[in-house]
Design brief:
- The chain is mainly α.
- It folds into 2 domains: 81 residues, no CATH class; 65 residues, no CATH class.
- It is 75% helix and 0% strand.
- It is built from 6 helices and no strands.
- The radius of gyration is 22 Å and the shape is flat.
Length: 167
């Protein structure tokens, strides 16, 4: 019975390794941010204790996954990765466009506020991805209005939580 690590030639394993490293870096950054959350005099652990525990466990699991990936990925998989990554990006271009729209949405929300930024995001995204029929465009407009101005009203009036208003 051998306990030798399994090997694979899948370039997807390289992408998985890169995602582990990226998630580790993000989790480490969030751990540091949680550590600087001020504590109140009424709490023993402080507001950042739970996020620090979550990100600490996540970093430990990701470190184990990184080590395991490094042990099991053969050298030839690294050579095949660029061509496979380009093919994947071409095949998944709508997913990439969606994330680019999301990045623009999140970056303009402080300027425009939640209602306008969400309305624009939903209109552009659904107009890009949905069928181009009059009925689907009407549904798009109704849903965009409901999820932008409707949710803003709901949170403000019912929950007394105010979403970003913009500058």
């Amino acid at each position: 019975m051998s306990h030798a690590p399994e090997t694979t030639t899948q370039p997807g394993d390289i992408a998985r390794l890169i995602s582990y490293v990226a998630l580790f870096a993000v989790s480490a950054g969030l751990f540091v941010e949680a550590a600087i959350i001020p504590t109140s005099r009424f709490e023993v652990l402080g507001a950042g204790a739970f996020p620090m525990m979550v990100h600490g466990v996540l970093m430990a699991l990701l470190a184990l996954a990184i080590i395991r990936s490094l042990r099991t990925i053969p050298a030839q998989a690294y050579a095949a990765f660029p061509s496979v990554a380009l093919r994947w990006a071409r095949d998944k271009r709508l997913v990439i466009v969606t994330f680019l729209f999301l990045a623009v949405y999140l970056s303009v929300m402080p300027l425009l506020g939640y209602p306008l930024a969400t309305l624009g995001f939903l209109l552009v995204l659904t107009a890009t991805l949905a069928p181009k029929t009059p009925a689907s465009m009407a549904v798009t407009v109704v849903l965009a209005l409901a999820f932008s101005f409707g949710l803003n009203w709901l949170f403000a009036e019912v929950f007394n939580v105010f979403l970003p208003r913009g500058s």
